[in-house]
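Posting for a labmate who doesn't have an account.
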Amino acid sequence: MSRPRSSRAALRRRSCWRWAIQSGLALAGVGLMLSSALASEPPPQRQRELTHLVRQECGSCHGMSLQGGLGPALLPADLRDKPAEGLAATVYHGRPGTAMPPWQRFLTEAEAAWVVDRLISGFPE
């Protein structure tokens, strides 16, 4: 026994709608991932401010060229084997009992992660 034509057409329409909705949801997910990745990149002016902060404030302990001083060197070779998440947590929360202060009053966690990413890849001048 075959189905009436109207129910076949309705099934096809529902199938097309289901595909369209699933595709739309998948594209929305990709869009959210891209926007969150872009959101973690500070605007150019803030990048300049963070670069200045690292050169001046961090440089006072880690050396003006970040080669070390009171604090350890912050060059890519020195940070290579350290997890970026741990380094960002150190920047943001500091290290109690040491001279490393928390910087959470001056930057966000995302900015701390950005600073660490720049340090690992070679900090800009």
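Reply:
Got it, the structure tokens are right above this. Residues 25 and 31 are 10 Å apart (CA to CA).
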